[in-house]
Amino acid sequence: MTARYCLLHRMADRYISRRQNCQLNRENPLKNRFAIATLAVVAVAGLAVAGCSSSKKDSSSTTTAAPATTTTAKSSSSTVGNVLPPIIITPDMADANNGGTVKVPPIKVGDTVVFNMGTIQKGVTVSIARNTNPSVFEVTSKGTNDGTVSYNAGGKALAAGTTQVDLGATGAGVENFLGTYTLVITK
Predict the structure, then answer these.
(1) For 41, how many CA atoms within 13 A lie in the half-sphere containing its CB?
(2) What pLDDT is recorded for position 8?
(3) How would you class 169 by CB atoms within 10 Å of its CB: exposed for 0-12, middle for 13-18, buried for 19 or more?
(4) What is the four-CA torsion angle of 5, 11, 17, 21, rounded to 10 degrees?
(5) In this structure, are residues 122 and 147 in contact, taking their beta carbons and an 8 Å threshold?
(6) CATH of residue 91
(7) Does residue 170 have a pLDDT over 70?
């Protein structure tokens, strides 16, 4: 009902003064607001229930307790999606004549190799001084520390083969030979 209806109603069979407000006009907007609010509450509740439910396709898979004996699948390589994790080389993996006690892990073509020599002092650069076979291993970064973050030296295995890599630290009054690392890269 509109204000026009109220005006027509005034003119028709009974007189409603202008000072009085047409009750029909007062009740109608309240009814509309109540109806809209009710619909909004029902819609929100419906969306909440729909969001918590699953489709028939998903409902066929149920969660069950694991059996008492479990077996693990043998993984040929540790991957996340299509990205391989880096091979981490530590100081104790240097060649035996340089004090190394741990073997360098297997490296495959395409692997990223990171030389983690510990916390690098500000102003010091850890770099690969010598790479005996650049066609097998490519140096991609130096190890640095700019005072806010420390980066490790590293590279990428390009092809199958063997290379020896020498690491050294220079800068801020430091000149150290960090060792020779033999990298055996397979397909």
Answers:
(1) 6
(2) 53
(3) buried
(4) -10
(5) yes
(6) 2.60.40.1080
(7) yes
